[in-house]
Design brief:
Blueprint lengths: L1 H61 L3 H6 L2 H4 L5 H14 L2 H6 L3 H37 L16 H5 L10
Amino acid sequence: MKKLFTLTMLISFAMICSCRKQDSAAEQQLAQRKTELDAREKALDEREKALAEREKATTNIRRIPADVQRRIPADVQRRTLDPAQVKAERDRRIQQLPPDAQRLLPDPAQVQAERDKRRQQMLEQLQRMRAGSAASPAADATSATSPGAKGTLTNPSAASPAAEATSPTASPTPQ
């Protein structure tokens, strides 16, 4: 009986000791996690403060006090000008240039005429390309039909590429 009592006491003592070891290990792990969490919270607080400072700085930059606006010259303040005023100012500055410098500047009418000419050429080239690509599928469709059936074209512009190449608007004449 003494042996049995001693054995049960020994087993219970071993269980209590092992529980204490597990508790101390769990407490150490909990303390470590708590310190990690505290460090993360501190870093998060620092980030929030830095973000708030940046937002405050950007809002301060965006707002220009009224007294500073009064100090800005009037010609700098007016950013949106009337197109007629801009053209008049440009013409005035061009007139102030020496004659050889004025000759170097292109005439706006000639520049516009060149743009129109290039645009018209590109349009004609595009129309020829479309007519060429539309003509080849139409030719394939007519050759595939039976000789007794009438060949109908799905694209009327493919029937006459010459009509497609002519422009409905007159080309600007160079001056």
